[in-house]
Design goal:
The complex is a heterodimer of chains A (105) and B (757).
Chain A lengths: L2 E13 L2 E6 L2 E5 L3 E6 L7 E2 L21 E4 L9 E7 L2 E11 L3
Parallel strand pairs in A: 1-4, 3-8
Antiparallel strand pairs in A: 1-2, 5-7, 7-8
Chain B lengths: L2 H13 L8 H14 L5 H4 L5 H8 L16 E3 L10 E18 L7 E15 L2 E6 L15 E5 L3 E8 L22 E4 L5 E5 L21 E3 L15 E3 L13 H16 L12 H17 L22 H9 L6 E3 L1 E7 L18 E6 L6 H7 L2 E7 L1 H6 L5 E9 L26 E3 L6 E4 L4 E8 L15 E7 L2 E2 L20 E2 L3 E2 L8 E7 L9 E5 L2 E8 L33 E12 L15 E4 L8 E6 L3 E8 L6 E5 L4 E7 L8 E2 L6 E2 L1 E4 L16 E8 L5 E7 L2 H5 L3 E7 L9
Parallel strand pairs in B: 1-5, 2-6, 5-14, 10-11, 15-18, 17-25, 26-29, 28-37
Antiparallel strand pairs in B: 2-3, 3-4, 6-12, 7-8, 9-13, 13-14, 15-16, 18-23, 19-20, 19-23, 21-22, 24-25, 26-27, 29-35, 30-34, 30-36, 31-32, 31-33, 31-35, 36-37
Classes of the chains: A mainly beta (105), B alpha+beta (757).
Chain lengths: 105, 757
C-alpha cells in the first residue's frame, strides 16, 4: 500500500493552455495505492478525467502551494488487468497526464 | 554535476530540514525516483552514472522490507541528575518530520502475501538536548528508509520532563488535510477511481456517512500524550486538546519555527515548570512567545487556502471564520482557558509526582514506575499518525525495577506498531463487483520498526521485556513461547501486587480480552494501548531453531539462544514472591466503601445514520459511547478526589473496544465475557491496575438460551485525584476514537475560598 504525490510544476515553456506540467507526466501506481497532486505552480490547476468534467475527480481546483484530496485507484476489469487513466487539467486543456494502474503485487 | 551532489541537493530540497540529518534514505529515494521516471526505458542507458553497486541497492529490497533482522535497540534519551539520588531532568527535542519510507505491507491480493510498500510518513526524530549529534533514527543506518518508533525516553519518578516538540511536517507531501472539523466540509476526502475513469467519493461518502469532528482530518497537526503518566491534563503537561500545526517555511524551504526560534521562550517555560509554577493561562506564557504565536496563527488564517483559492482575497482570509484558528484561541483566552492552537512548536513539561507517606502535601497518587509510552493524540488524525510511527516508549524507573535489577541481565524495550501510509477507509474499497473489498487487510505488525526481528539471549539468561502495544488498532494476544519461561511482572506500567505475581506459572498466555484465571485472578492484556512486562528466562542450551513469539497465528518476533561471551552457568532464577517488589501504598486496593458515584458507559458500533448513495455499496459502522459520537461537549463530570465505580459495556459483537482513560489508572474487579459464559467473573483482590482494558464484545453466551445476545462488560474502580481539568476517555482502536468513540471528562475541585459569615 503506497502513496504517491504528483507535482504540478511551472512549464519551462509556458503557453496559455499549458502553464504547468505534471511531474511525473506518466505516473505508475498499483491498485489500492493512493495518489494526490501538489501544486507547485503560481496558478491554480485542476486534475480531472476530462476538461468538461472538472469535478470528475476533485470538487475544487488546487490553489498554488496546496495539495489535492486523495485519489484511490481500484482493480482493473477483469481483475489483474492493468489499465491507464488519461487526465487533463480542467483549467488548462493542454496539460495532460496519465496514470498506469498495475495489479497489486 | 556529480551524482552524489545531485543526491545531496535533492535531500535539501525535499525536506528543508537540517542536512546533517539526511541519511541514505534520500539517496535510495533519489535512485528509486529516477527508476520510476525511466521505468519504460533501458536503465543503464538512462542512468549511465549508476554503478553496479547502485543498481544492486535499488533493485534489492531495503532492509526495512526484509524480515528477520537482528532486533534494533531504540536510542534512549535519559534524564540527567546532579548526583544519583537527586531528581533529574529529561530534556529532549522531538521533531516531527516526514520522509518517504518503505515497509512491508499486506498485499491487497490477499492470501497472506506481502509487498514492499512506500510513501511519505511522519515520524519523531529525537535527540537529547545536551547531545544533538545523536539523532534517532536518522543517525542509525540500520533504520534508514523505514518507519520506526520515536526515541525511548527514560526517567525516574520525581524527575522533570521537558520536551521541545517541533512540527516540521511538510504538508505538501500529503493529501489535503485541514485542522478544524467542527462545522462541516473539512474531513479528509478520498475519491475511488476505476478503469472507466469516473471517480466516486469513498470517504467520507456522498452524502457523507460521517460528519466533523468525527472523521479523519488535520493529520499534519499534532500534540503529545504521555500514556500512563499521572500528571496534570492541562496546559503544557498531558494536554491532548492541543493542536500544533506544522511550521511555516522560508523561501529555501527550511522550517522557520526551529529549536533556535523557540529556545529562549521555552527555557523560560521549562524553568517555570521545574520551579513548580507551570503556566496555567495564556498570560503566564512569555510575552514574546504569545506575540510570536498570535502572529503566526493570524498569518495562517489570512493565507490558508480554502476550496481551491488562496487567501487573502481583498485583504481578507478565504478561510471561513469557523475554520480560522486565532479567533478560537482568542475566545479561549477571553474565557481564561488554555488555547488549543499553535504553530510549529509546543513545550511539554511536567514533574512525575512522588507519593510520600504521612506528608500532607503528598499527592494522593504517585506516579507508578513502569513501562509507559508517548504518542500523538490529535483527534481526527491519531490513527494515521500512529500508523506512520508516531509513538515511543516512556520508561519511568523507580523501586519496582530497582528491586528486580538483580534478577535480570538486560531489559529490552519492545515497541509494537502497525505501519501504513493510508488508513483502510481512505483506500479504494470497491471490489470488482462494486462491493466492499474484503481483501483490504490491516497493516502488518512490527517490533522496534522491524518485521519479525530476532532477539538474542544467552543460555540461562534472564531478561526483562517491556512490551508496548503501540498499534493503532491491532490486538496482540501473546502465546507463551515454547522453550522460554516467562512470568508477568507488570501491567500497563504498574507492577503486579505480590499476591498476583506467580513465579510458578512460567507459560501464561495473554488473551484479548484479558482472560480470567483460576482463583479469581485476571491475566494480562495487550490490546491496543496496553503494556506488559515479563521476566523471561532462556533455556540452558543454545537452540538450533529460532523460538517464535507468536500472537494469534502470526509471529511477532523470534528468539535465538546462543552462547555469547558471557557464560551463565545456571538458570537465572525468577524472584520469589517474597523477593518481588512490594506494591507502594498508593496502589493499594481502592476501598469500595469510599465509592460515591457509579456510572455505566455503553460502547457500540452501529450502522451509520448517513449511508452513501454514491460510491461503495457499504458504509463503515459508526462508533459511539452512550449512543453518540464525540461532539466537543463534556460528557462526564466529577469532583476532584472522588472515588467512583464504572461499568463499561460493549453492546456490539465483533470488536473488543479497548477502553482508555487518561491521568488516573483503574482497578478491574469484575468481567463478563459472554463468549465464554453468561456469568461474570468476580475477581479476587488484590486487583490489577490497568489504564486500558478491552471490553469483551457482545455475544450469545454458550450457556445461555442460545439466541439472546448479551453485552460484554467490565467493572472498575478509580479515583479522580490530584488533578482537575478536562481530558478524554476513548476507545484505543484509534480509528474508532478519531471517528467519534471518545468523550470529554471534566474533573472539578469543590473547594472554595468563600466564607459565609
Amino acid at each position: 500500500m503506497s502513496t504517491q504525490v504528483i507535482e504540478i510544476k511551472p512549464n519551462p515553456t509556458p503557453t496559455p493552455t499549458q502553464p504547468g506540467v505534471f511531474d511525473p507526466k506518466a505516473a505508475v501506481t498499483n491498485a489500492y495505492d493512493t495518489l494526490c497532486w501538489h501544486n507547485d505552480d503560481s496558478e491554480a490547476h485542476w486534475p480531472a478525467p476530462n476538461k468538461d468534467n472538472p469535478t470528475g475527480w476533485f470538487q475544487y481546483q488546487i490553489a498554488p502551494g496546496d495539495t489535492s484530496d486523495t485519489l484511490a485507484p481500484g482493480p482493473g476489469n477483469p481483475p489483474g488487468t492493468p489499465y491507464t487513466l488519461d487526465y487533463v487539467c480542467a483549467n488548462h486543456e493542454d496539460e495532460k497526464g496519465t496514470i498506469t494502474v498495475n495489479p497489486q503485487p | 554535476m556529480p551524482e552524489k551532489q545531485i543526491v545531496s541537493n535533492q535531500a535539501r530540497i525535499e525536506d528543508g530540514n537540517d542536512p546533517k540529518q539526511k541519511s541514505e534514505v534520500s539517496r535510495r529515494e533519489f535512485l528509486q525516483k529516477s527508476m520510476m521516471v525511466t521505468s519504460s526505458l533501458a536503465l543503464t542507458a538512462m542512468l549511465p552514472s549508476l554503478s553496479k553497486a547502485d543498481l544492486a541497492e535499488v533493485l534489492a529490497p531495503p532492509a526495512t522490507c526484509q524480515p528477520g533482522q537482528t532486533l534494533m535497540e531504540v536510542m534512549e534519551i535519559s534524564a540527567k541528575r546532579p548526583n544519583p539520588t537527586s531528581p533529574g531532568t529529561l530534556q529532549a527535542v522531538l521533531k516531527i518530520i516526514n520522509e518517504n519510507k518503505q515497509y512491508l505491507a499486506a498485499s491487497a491480493a490477499g492470501g497472506g502475501k506481502t509487498t514492499c510498500a512506500s510513501g511519505q510518513m511522519r515520524y519523531f526524530s529525537g535527540y537529547d538536548k545536551a547531545d544533538p549529534s545523536h539523532v534517532w533514527p536518522n543517525s542509525y543506518p540500520e533504520m534508514a528508509g523505514g518507519p520506526a518508533p520515536g526515541p525511548t525516553l527514560r526517567c525516574k519518578v520525581g524527575d522533570t520532563v521537558q520536551i521541545t516538540l517541533l512540527n516540521h511536517v511538510k504538508v505538501s507531501d500529503f493529501g489535503k488535510s485541514l485542522d478544524v472539523a467542527e462545522t462541516g466540509g473539512t474531513c479528509d476526502v478520498s475519491m475511488s477511481v476505476g478503469p472507466g475513469g469516473t471517480a466516486v467519493n469513498t470517504y467520507p461518502g456522498n452524502p457523507s456517512f460521517e460528519m466533523p469532528p468525527d472523521c479523519f482530518h488535520g493529520s499534519s497537526s499534532t500534540n503529545l500524550h504521555f500514556h500512563g503518566t499521572h500528571v496534570s491534563p492541562n496546559s503544557v503537561e498531558d494536554y491532548v486538546l492541543a493542536n500544533t500545526r506544522p511550521s511555516p517555511r522560508d523561501s529555501s524551504g527550511k522550517p522557520t519555527v526551529d529549536e533556535k526560534y523557540v529556545e529562549a521562550d521555552f527555557a523560560e517555560i521549562f524553568k517555570m515548570c521545574s520551579e513548580g509554577h507551570t503556566p496555567q493561562l495564556w498570560k503566564d506564557l512569555p510575552k514574546n512567545w504569545q506575540d510570536k504565536q498570535e502572529d503566526l496563527l493570524k498569518k495562517y488564517d489570512l493565507t490558508a487556502p480554502w476550496q481551491g483559492v488562496n487567501g487573502p482575497v481583498d485583504g481578507k482570509p478565504v478561510l471561513p471564520l469557523s475554520q480560522q484558528l486565532w479567533p478560537k484561541n482568542q475566545a479561549a483566552i477571553d474565557s481564561c482557558t488554555w488555547p488549543q492552537y499553535y504553530i510549529g512548536a509546543y513545550p511539554n513539561c511536567f514533574t512525575l509526582p512522588v507519593w510520600k507517606k504521612d506528608d500532607p502535601k503528598s499527592p494522593k497518587m504517585g506516579q507508578a514506575p513502569g513501562t509507559h509510552w508517548y504518542h500523538s493524540h490529535k483527534h481526527g488524525s491519531t490513527a494515521l499518525n500512529l500508523a506512520n510511527g508516531m509513538a515511543g516508549a516512556l520508561i519511568i524507573e523507580g523501586e519496582y525495577d530497582e528491586k528486580l535489577k538483580p534478577f535480570f541481565t538486560k531489559q529490552v524495550v519492545l515497541v509494537i506498531q502497525q505501519f501504513g501510509t493510508q488508513l483502510n477507509l481512505m483506500r479504494n474499497g470497491i471490489n470488482d463487483q462494486g462491493q466492499a473489498n474484503k481483501n483490504i487487510s490491516s497493516d502488518l505488525v512490527f517490533v522496534n520498526g522491524q518485521y519479525t526481528p530476532v532477539l538474542e539471549m544467552n543460555p540461562n539468561e534472564m531478561q526483562l521485556w517491556r512490551i508496548i502495544n503501540a498499534c493503532h488498532r491491532a490486538q496482540i494476544p501473546l502465546s507463551a513461547p515454547a522453550g522460554l519461561k516467562w512470568v508477568q511482572t507488570a501491567q500497563d506500567g504498574v507492577q503486579l501486587h505480590q499476591d498476583n505475581y506467580n513465579p510458578a506459572v512460567t507459560n501464561a498466555s495473554i488473551g484479548i480480552p484479558a482472560a480470567t484465571l483460576p482463583g479469581g485472578k485476571i491475566g494480562g492484556s495487550l490490546a491496543a494501548g496496553n503494556r506488559v512486562d515479563f521476566l523471561v528466562q532462556a533455556p540452558s542450551t543454545p537452540t538450533s531453531q529460532p523460538i517464535p513469539v507468536n500472537f494469534g497465528t502470526k509471529t511477532l518476533f523470534t528468539v535465538v539462544v546462543k552462547q555469547g561471551s558471557k557464560v551463565i552457568r545456571d538458570p537465572m532464577p525468577f524472584p520469589t514472591t517474597a523477593e518481588f517488589p512490594v506494591m507502594p501504598p498508593f496502589l493499594d486496593n481502592i476501598d469500595p466503601n469510599k465509592v460515591t458515584v457509579r456510572r455505566a458507559l455503553h460502547f457500540a458500533s452501529n450502522p451509520p445514520k448517513n449511508r452513501s448513495t454514491q460510491g461503495p455499496s457499504f458504509a463503515p459502522p459508526t462508533h459511539t459511547i452512550d449512543g453518540k459520537q464525540f461532539d466537543n461537549t463534556i460528557d462526564q463530570s466529577m469532583v476532584l478526589g472522588a472515588t467512583e465505580e464504572w461499568t463499561l459495556y460493549n453492546d456490539s459483537p465483533g470488536a473488543a473496544h479497548p477502553f482508555h482513560i487518561h491521568i488516573n489508572p483503574f482497578q478491574v474487579f469484575e468481567v463478563l465475557n459472554p463468549a465464554v459464559s453468561k456469568n461474570p467473573v468476580k475477581l479476587e483482590p488484590p486487583y490489577v491496575w490497568f489504564d486500558d482494558f478491552a471490553i469483551p464484545p457482545a455475544a450469545v453466551p454458550p450457556d445461555g438460551d442460545g439466541k439472546t445476545q448479551v453485552s460484554g462488560y467490565f467493572k472498575m474502580r478509580t479515583r479522580f485525584v490530584d488533578f482537575a481539568g478536562v481530558y478524554v476517555l476513548h476507545c484505543h482502536i484509534l480509528g474508532h476514537e478519531d471517528r467519534g468513540m471518545m468523550q470529554l471528562v471534566q474533573v472539578v475541585s469543590n473547594t472554595s475560598h468563600m466564607e459565609h459569615n
